[in-house]
Amino acid sequence: MTAYRYRALNEQGKLVKGFLEGDSERQVRGQLRSRNLRPVEVEEANRPAANSLSWRPRLFQPRISAGDLAMVTRQLATLVLSNLPLDEALQAAAQQSRSARIKGMLLQVRSRVSEGYTLAYAMTEFPQVFNEMYRAMVAAGEHSGHLGPVLEQLADYTEQRQYTSQKLKMAMIYPFILVGVAIAVVVALMIFVVPELVGIFVHSNRELPLLTQILIASSDFFRAWGLWLLLAIVALVVTVRQLLRNESRRRQWHRIQLRIPGWSRLVVAIDTARFASTLSILMASGVPLLDALRIAGQVLTNLVLREDSKAVAERVQEGSSLNRALQQSGRFPPMMVHMVASGEASGELETMLARSADNQERELEMTLGTMMALFEPLMVVVMGGMVLLIVLAILLPIFDLNTMVK
């Protein structure tokens, strides 16, 4: 059976929407008529709706959030652990969802499972929602017969990733707002306030102080070219984003990031923590080490680090230990390498990888906290310095006039 999305008119002529399962579109239309509904549109749930923008790039197609994915995974884990058959668990999770998109997706997955496919295979129809790591863990859980516990681990992992991502975003909101307000205040002063205050000096024959001349020239520039400057900045950002779509250019940019003092440490900490956490949960779910290394490498956002992870997998495949392969890369944190070595020696590699990820995330949180603690007073000082320069540029000609009067 297949899940179908429908739009139909009820007895009052009101348009209703929903999902039904059936062997064919014709059968679903028959089910609708038996419910006194007149079908308007019936199509498979995994196809874009007819009124959607079919030309949209895949990147901008709707996808569920990490929070929704964690909630669905948690529901499935609870239902599977309650010894409910998988197809019934999927149907129950779909019924509990308020999102039509999630409901249709789960019903489509259930249809494939009812046809005899594995859950992991059924999820391949939605790669934007269930990534390779997710499907590999589900496949390992199905193969070992421990799907419920694996789904619980997946829910914990997704919730932790969402929490970390949210924490990073929240940490960056205040600095961006502060910088935006500072720029807006200075630009407003230059465009609206400064011309009114220094206009009385422009038509005088006296030579103005250099600072005042610079202020007047800057004010004239912003008034004449401010809008064009803003458009140029937007165009530059769009152009750079388009250029970075090319993998070779993006790799060069990522390589430059790893050479910037301070910033490189932040990039490596974020990526390697994600790598260690993903590798730990994959191995704990029963995924073989080589497969786990290949999948965990895909979560690295920096292409240079991703290439290093591939080299690590190749060395391990050739017989090297994981800690030696990580050490030879030279980019993974020494503490992570030492903890991996300890885990390999004690036979608790996945546990030590999880601890390594926790340590790196705590260190990352402390680093961000320190950066924010330094950034806030620095921005206040910079803002105060710029306002002071504007005030001095306005007051210097007035001081000169007072001197001449005396």
Automatic annotation (TrEMBL):
It is found in: Cell inner membrane. InterPro entries: GspF/PilC, T2SS_GspF, T2SS_GspF/T4SS_PilC_CS, T2SS_GspF_dom, T2SS_GspF_sf. It is a multi-pass membrane protein. GO terms for molecular function: metal ion binding. Pfam families: T2SSF (PF00482). Residues 73-195, 275-397 form the Type II secretion system protein GspF domain. Its main location: membrane. One of its GO terms (cellular component) is type II protein secretion system complex. The chain crosses the membrane at residues 171-202, 222-244, 378-399. One of its GO terms (biological process) is protein secretion by the type II secretion system. Keywords: Calcium, Cell inner membrane, Cell membrane, Membrane, Metal-binding, Protein transport, Transmembrane, Transmembrane helix, Transport. Component of the type II secretion system inner membrane complex required for the energy-dependent secretion of extracellular factors such as proteases and toxins from the periplasm. Belongs to the GSP F family. NCBIfam families: GspF. This is General secretion pathway protein F.
